[in-house]
Every structure is written in structure tokens, then in C-alpha cells.
Amino acid sequence: MLITHLRHSCVLVEHDGTRVLFDPGTFAAGFESLTGLDAVLITHQHPDHADPERLPALVAANPDAVRYADPQTAKQWNERGDAGEWKVIGPGEEIRIGAFAVRGTGGRHAVIHPSIPVVDNTAYILDIDGKPGAFCHPGDSLYIPSERIDVLALPAAAPWLKLSESVDYLRGVAPRIAFPIHQAVLSDAGCGVHNARISEMAPEGTGFTVLETGEPVEL
After folding, report:
1. Which residues make Cβ contacts (< 8 Å) with residue 42, sequence separation at least 6?
2. Sign of dihedral through CA atoms 147, 151, 156, 160?
3. Cβ(101)–Cβ(16) under 8 Å?
4. Average pLDDT, stretch 92-113?
5. Per the confidence metrics, is the pTM higher than 0.90?
6. 23: region left, alpha or beta (phi > 0 left; psi from -120 to 50 alpha)
7. Is beta strand 131-137 parallel, antiparallel or unpaired with respect to 120-128?
8. Which of the 8 DSSP states describes residue 212?
9. What average pLDDT does range 176-200 have in this prediction?
């Protein structure tokens, strides 16, 4: 797969001519110019995962792209009416998008604080022919799939997350390789500290790599 990190939780995944974009949110950069997308997938409703200002233009520039989100987010965008029709993909549901079998799993956002309602969060697993669990984007959750994941987009910083929790999640999933996402809430120095600690404590057999924004990497 060819993977491009577009800051924070926005990730473009490409394989065998199919292009799928995850979580084009307010902290992301570079997704505005994308065309030829086959799908836009949103994990949950928070603006840093679904930018209310730029998402409609992205949809207009990619009219043939299918659009899926968790139940609450799909409902919100369909009620807005300015970004096309959104379909729901939730836990246990599977769809086919070109070269990918896309599975929804998880279901709930991590707890930010007991006084803040917990929203829907669909974690996505992409399968390709001969490689189930080829990629996982958990959104804002620490959902551990019941199968081996090859490439993991790892939540590495968040208001709801401690560094130790990110490390424990990485160890729990134990993918072949992981790269950090959701780090726009950190300073550059903070990113360096977090990524160094995660790299040091990654489980044996798991590679940890930081992807440069906008640079496609084959993983």
C-alpha cells in the first residue's frame, strides 16, 4: 500500500488503483487538492476529523467517491445537505471499495471526561487480496482488533490520551508497522518526545516510523 499522512488523523491509502481518504479534519493539510478519490471515510464527528468548512469542497471535487461515516456523523452531514449523501458503516459491517474490503469495527470514541458524552466512532480495517487486516485506522479510540494488523495508524497524542496508553495500545495490537497520527495537539518538541518514547517501547517485531506530511510512503 501507498500511504500519505496529511497531518493529524488525515490519511490517504492507495492500493492497486484505489484511493481512500480518512478523516479530512481541521488540523489536516493538503487534502483540499485531492481528486480521483474512490472513497472518503470518517471515523467520527469532531471537527479535527471532519472539517465543516473544507469537506464540502472536497466532496464536490470528487463526485464519484463514496462517502461513509459512523451513524451520528452520517446523520449530521446528511442533515446539512452540503456534502452529498453519507452512508453509515458501523461495527460488524463490510463494504467493497475497489481493491479494498472495508470493515467497520469498534463503535465508540474514547472517554474524554465523564462529564462529556461519548460519541460514535467507527474504527476501519482495510483488507486487500491475500492480506486481511492490511491497514487499521482506529479514529479516536483504542480498539484492539481480534486479528493481526499489518499497518496501524496509531493515536499518539490527544486530550483523552496518556503516552502510556498509546504505548500499551501499540503493544496490544502489535502490528508489523505503525505510524503516529493525531499529533497536531502537540508542539514540535512534544512530538519529538512522544515519538521517541513510543519508538523505544514498541513491541518486538513492530516497526515504528514517522511519516512526513504529504510524502507518499510504501508500507
Report:
1. 22, 23, 24, 49, 50, 67, 68, 69, 70, 73, 86
2. negative
3. no
4. 96
5. yes
6. left
7. antiparallel
8. P
9. 96
Burial (Cβ within 10 Å: 0-12, 13-18, ≥19) of residue 132: middle
At 10-66, the pLDDT tens digits run 999 999 999 999 999 999 999 999 999 999 999 999 999 999 999 999 999 999 999
Contact of 92 with 104, CB cutoff 8 Å:
yes
Q: What is the three-class DSSP state of 61?
A: helix
Q: What are the DSSP E strand ranges found in the chain?
A: 2-5, 11-15, 18-22, 39-42, 66-69, 87-88, 94-97, 100-108, 120-128, 131-137, 151-155, 177-181, 207-208, 217-218
Give me the chain's average pLDDT, please: 96
Contact yes or no for 11/139 (Cβ under 8 A): no
How, if at all, do strands 151-155 and 131-137 pair? parallel
Q: Kindly state the cell numbers that stand for 10.
A: 488525515
